[in-house]
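Page 37, continued from 36.
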């Protein structure tokens, strides 16, 4: 386990590390249903979009290397979804299993609550992705469904697992 991973707000110099991590997951994993990894310019555009919305975009850096990153994005574009976010957490393969994902998700939840969001959705690629499912369960996400065979990657059909967690007051009362 990494001793108390330090989570901080991502900045432009982190984009190369973020791009490298995401590239690995696109090329070798099912967490993302992208087939071709985006370049640094595209990742910069995505980063800017998240930050312009006032949503958290976080990194953990270890020894000068971005060990993981997480961000919250718009769940759906229609106005009724404005209090709901979708989370993304990616860890550098060399730092897997060291608590990086937990540190990032904990801070991401706090940041989204601070931003006034009320629900967080995890869309997990592959129903066999137990590390991600367990990570989300650890933070109070509940399993709300599976979309069977909605993606086709690496020559096989892949499910999406949907998990959800209330933020702040959740659905207990109307937002301010």
């Amino acid at each position: 386990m990494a001793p108390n991973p330090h989570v901080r707000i991502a900045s432009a110099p982190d984009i190369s590390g973020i791009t490298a991590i995401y590239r690995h997951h696109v090329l070798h994993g099912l967490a993302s249903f992208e087939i071709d990894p985006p370049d640094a310019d595209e990742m910069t555009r995505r980063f800017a979009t998240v930050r312009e919305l006032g949503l958290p975009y976080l990194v953990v850096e270890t020894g000068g290397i971005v060990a993981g990153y997480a961000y919250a994005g718009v769940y759906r574009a229609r106005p009724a979804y404005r209090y709901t976010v979708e989370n993304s957490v990616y860890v550098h393969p060399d730092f897997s299993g060291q608590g990086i994902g937990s540190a990032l998700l904990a801070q991401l939840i706090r940041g989204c609550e601070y931003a006034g969001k009320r629900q967080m959705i995890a869309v997990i690629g592959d129903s066999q992705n137990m590390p991600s499912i367990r990570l989300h369960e650890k933070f109070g996400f509940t399993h709300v469904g599976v979309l069977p065979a909605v993606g086709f990657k690496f020559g096989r059909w892949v499910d999406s697992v949907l998990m959800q967690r209330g933020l702040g007051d959740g659905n207990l009362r109307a937002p301010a």
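The beta strands are 7-9, 57-62, 65-74, 84-91, 119-125, 142-153, 156-166. Flag for discussion at group meeting. The mean pLDDT is 96.
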